[in-house]
Amino acid sequence: MNEITFYGGVGEIGGNKILLKSPETKVFLDFGKSFGKEKFFYKEPYLSPRNEDQLLNLGLLPKIEGIYKDDLEPNVDGVIVSHPHLDHWGYTCYLDNRIPIYCGEDTKTVIVNYEQSSSAGPSKDYYLAHLTKNIDKEYKDFRTFTSGSRKTIGDIHIEPVNVNHSVPGAYGFIIRIGSKTLVYTGDFRVQGLESKKSEEFLEKASKTDVDLLITEATNIVGGQISSEIEVEGKMERLISKTTGLVVVSFSLRDIERLKSVYQAAIKNDRKIAVSSKQAYLLRSLRDEPKIDIFDINDEDVLVFGKEKSRISEWERRLIDEVEVLNGKEINPIQEDVVLVASYYDMNELMDVEPVSDSIFILSQSEPFDEEGEIQYEKLLNWCEHYGLPQYQIHVSGHVLPHELKKAIKTIDPDRVIPIHNERPDLFKRYMSDLDIDIELPMLNQTVKF
User: What pLDDT, on the 0 to 100 scale, is given for residue 17?
Assistant: First the structure.
């Protein structure tokens, strides 16, 4: 008999930590940071956890012996990371470095890039990777795969399949243990530029007898009907009606959104100015054969950065390859630029000095908690200061309810368990017309299959 125990992702968006136990093997499906639950106790950067003991005390990490850094012997055989969003891998920094991390080659590239240009861990003892002038090192045992390949961990056989999400390196998994089959979707959508990836995953999953489906259900509330193609078209039209600077804000690692903004810019004879961290990510991704994205040396690409008295090694490597412009250098060419910037870049706009008829496009989800509302209000204050009317153009990185229902019908599992959502009862009622056993998980609950 196999077991699944839910240590995160229950009644919350993200924080997935699901322990899969077979007769011979134990692996985690994701080991993510619980942003929502951390906010009950911490406020970065003023107060943040310093080690695993503090998170264990607060119930934010699973109380399992043999998985953390101070334990004598590892008690699990690995962590399978579905994609490189922190709410799916962020707490792996607290795990014993001898525990392997299984992930896509592109997933690893994004994670290591994140660690080099910032860090998930609270101190150097918790780095997954580190880059300085004298150090370029990975501290975790990364074991990578590609879509459609097979990985075997003990008696657990894993088939990873690329899915479409708002970050590159996203996978769903078809997992076989003896005569039993488990499907884990990770996070996915079918309204992106590469939605065929998700469709291929669903098709592959439908060709096997699935005993248990564990699926994300983020958008069971708040879903918006749109697509990445529509996002690009709306941006293109809006930019064409703007004579001044266009500022666009979206998630740093959303490569599909970056492609949409790039296309909208060049169709209006403008250059795109990406942030230094985005440029460094593009530099890291250039050798990933399955990721189709422009190069930082493209003639239509500029790099925009903050002026600093001290730079990190990743910034030095970037500067060695491309010119990084500051706000004063963007100022005289702003009418010919689409500037990718966020709330944290608002100081730099003082040097850009946006001219009349400039705009701000917010291309990410609306705030969903009090802290987000406060930051959003501050962003509006900045926009008012610079005279930037704000537009919202966005499509979610998560599957919509009616599409999720269709996906479940396609896979046709015996049982389905929804995670990564805040309203599981709504999910159960909405899906109640399916001839499938729907089980709602509980934190620290073990389910047998």
Answer: 98
Q: Which tens digits make up the pLDDT trace of 194-230?
A: 999 999 999 999 999 999 999 999 999 888 889 999 9
Confidence at residue 309, expressed as pLDDT on a 0 to 100 scale = 82
Number of Cβ within a 10 Å radius of residue 137: 10
Q: Return the CATH number of the domain spanning residue range 228-392.
A: 3.40.50.10710
Q: What is the pLDDT of residue 369?
A: 59
Question: Residue 138: which of 103, 173, 87 has the closest Cα?
Answer: 103
Residue 343: phi, psi to the nearest 5? -55, -35
Kindly list the distances between the CA atom of residue 363 and the CA atoms of 235, 265, 269, 331, 395, in Å, as whole numbers in the listed order.
10, 15, 21, 23, 8
What is the crossing angle of helices 105-117 and 313-321, to 10°? Answer: 110
Give 64: exposed, middle or buried? Use CB within 10 Å, 0-12, 13-18, 19+: middle
Beta bridge partners of 247: 339, 360
Question: How many whole angstroms separate alpha carbon 61 and alpha carbon 165?
Answer: 26
**177 burial level (CB within 10 Å; 0-12, 13-18, 19+):** buried
3-class secondary structure, 415: strand
pLDDT tens digit string along 83-119?
A: 999 999 999 999 999 999 999 999 999 999 999 998 7
Instruction: Specify the pLDDT at position 290.
Output: 86
Q: Are 31 and 81 in contact (CB under 8 A)?
A: yes
Closest C-alpha among 318, 314, 315 to residue 297: 318
Strands 446-448 and 3-8: antiparallel
- CATH code for residues 3-222+398-448: 3.60.15.10
Residue 272's CB is within 10 A of a number of other CB atoms, namely: 25
pLDDT at 445 over 90: yes
Are 193 and 233 in contact by the 8 Å Cβ rule? The answer is: no
| In contact, 62 and 446? CB cutoff 8 Å | no
Residues 6+ apart with CB under 8 A from 237: none
Dist CA 40 CA 286 (whole Å): 39
Model pTM? 0.95
Binned at pLDDT 50, 70 and 90, residue 366 comes out as low
SS3 call for 242 = coil
Sheet holding 171-177, edge to edge: 151-153, 156-162, 171-177, 180-184, 212-216, 415-419, 437-438
Question: Is there a contact between 333 and 223 (Cβ–Cβ < 8 Å)?
Answer: no
Would you list the domain boundaries of the chain? 3-222+398-448, 228-392
